[in-house]
């Protein structure tokens, strides 16, 4: 997901030559993670999770309070996807690597599975557009450093994710994906690797993407359809989505509420936003439509004997009806579970969030928690 990067403070680029070889990076540090961590319950596909951006994407990221994590774990969440800005570790910064190690250790100690997501900064994302070879080298450098942390963490609890939303064409990504897998396998032979299709990790992009030639892998996809609903009132760029508001779910273009919105947009001369709503809702968006999408994903998983996780999905809370937001999230979560697909919601406490603050155990959104974890009234 690119949105949160744009509303978070800018990251600091640390692109220099590697100071130390990844294989020897942490060997002199006075700790041994593997002996300090409790045995983890095997999780073939991590699930019941949420994303936790804003911690390791900048040097002064904000860690969640332990009490908040404990409450989330007690509520029933089992997995945390942890975005990491590779530029912060690619030069072998020992202090940053130690912070990441300590953070993952704490999460595992609380009973969470952790997806360590290589999440490109805005600068690295742009580099893939104007200098893709250099950008690829930067990602390899980052994993060469970070693999030393992963290698000393439990294989049943920690899952390295090769690259979020790979910003390149399919053929280039398959080549880099193989290189990243080999980089990690050199130090992490037993950890399960997570990867998604280029370029948006969309559910529609995996159909022609082959799995890795690896016995320990999970394919990861993102789902935000229809964007006119999930991203209405977004505020980080000039997209017409910013001018769409109060769409319900389930929805069709014939609903009076939708027709009124389209008419109002056209009356103000906003043909771009009006046309986007009509295009996005050319077919009805209902629980059945979502179920169909995930049934197709389930068939891909079965055909390729490759497990799948939905590690991003969510709805902005800026101007949507809370009941519609919860209904969409519940429909997606249930469709994933029916097809044996793990899931991790985007995200914890920002625009798509389910709690007010990672520093507080107050103001959890009960409607969203129920939509994600199940409730008698909705399941």
Description:
- The chain has about 375 residues and is an alpha/beta fold.
- The chain has two domains: about 5-10 and about 20-230 and about 290-375, Glycosidases (TIM Barrel, Alpha-Beta Barrel); about 250-285.
- Helix content is about 40%, strand content about 10%.
- It has 13 helices and eight strands.
- It has helices at about 5, 35, 65-75, 95-110, 120-130, 130-150, 170-185, 225-230, 255-265, 270-280, 285-305, 320-340, 365-375; strands spanning about 50, 80-85, 115-120, 160, 195, 215-225, 310-315, 340-345.
- It has an eight-stranded parallel β-sheet.
- α4 links the parallel β2 (about 80-85) and β3 (about 115-120).
- The chain is globular and about 60 Å long.
- It starts with a helix and ends in a 6-residue tail after the last helix.
- Residues about 1-45 have low confidence and may be disordered.
In short:
By secondary structure, the protein is α/β, with parallel strands linked by helices.
Secondary structure topology:
Elements: H1 3-7, H2 33-36, E1 49-51, H3 66-75, E2 79-84, H4 94-109, E3 113-118, H5 122-130, H6 132-151, E4 158-161, H7 170-185, E5 193-195, E6 217-223, H8 227-230, H9 256-267, H10 271-280, H11 287-304, E7 308-313, H12 322-338, E8 342-345, H13 366-373
Helix pairs in contact: 4-6, 5-6, 6-7, 9-10, 11-12, 12-13
């Amino acid at each position: 997901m690119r949105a949160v990067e744009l509303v978070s403070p800018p990251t600091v680029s640390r692109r220099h030559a590697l100071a130390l070889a990844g294989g020897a990076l942490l060997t002199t540090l006075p700790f041994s993670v593997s002996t300090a961590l409790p045995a983890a319950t095997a999780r073939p596909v991590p699930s019941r999770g949420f994303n936790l951006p804003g911690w390791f994407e900048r040097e002064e990221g904000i860690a969640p309070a332990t009490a908040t994590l404990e409450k989330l774990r007690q509520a029933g969440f089992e997995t945390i996807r942890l975005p990491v800005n590779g530029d912060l570790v690619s030069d072998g910064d020992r202090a940053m690597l130690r912070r990441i190690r300590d953070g993952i250790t704490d999460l595992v100690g609380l009973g969470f599975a952790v997806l360590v997501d290589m999440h490109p900064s805005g600068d690295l994302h742009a580099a893939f557009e104007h200098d893709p070879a250099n950008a690829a080298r930067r990602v390899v450098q980052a994993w060469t450093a970070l693999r030393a942390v992963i290698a000393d963490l439990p294989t049943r609890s920690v899952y390295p994710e090769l690259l979020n939303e790979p910003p390149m064409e399919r053929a280039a990504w398959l080549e880099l994906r193989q290189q990243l897998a080999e980089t990690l396998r050199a130090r992490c032979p037993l950890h399960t690797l997570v990867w998604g299709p280029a370029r948006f990790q969309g559910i529609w992009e995996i159909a022609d993407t082959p799995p890795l030639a690896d016995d320990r892998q999970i394919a990861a996809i993102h789902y935000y359809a229809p964007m006119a609903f999930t991203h209405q009132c977004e505020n980080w760029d000039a997209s017409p989505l910013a001018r769409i508001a109060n769409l319900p779910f389930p929805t069709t273009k014939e609903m009076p509420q939708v027709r009124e919105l389209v008419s109002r947009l056209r009356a103000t001369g906003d043909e771009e936003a009006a046309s986007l709503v009509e295009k996005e809702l050319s077919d009805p968006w209902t629980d059945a439509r979502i179920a169909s999408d995930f049934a197709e994903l389930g068939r891909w998983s079965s055909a390729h004997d490759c497990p799948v996780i939905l590690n991003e999905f969510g709805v902005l809370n800026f101007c949507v009806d809370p009941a519609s937001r919860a209904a969409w999230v519940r429909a997606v979560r249930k469709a994933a579970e029916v097809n044996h697909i793990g899931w991790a919601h985007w995200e914890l406490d920002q625009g798509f969030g389910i709690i007010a603050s990672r520093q507080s155990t107050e103001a959890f959104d009960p409607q969203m928690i129920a939509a994600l974890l199940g409730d008698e009234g909705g399941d």
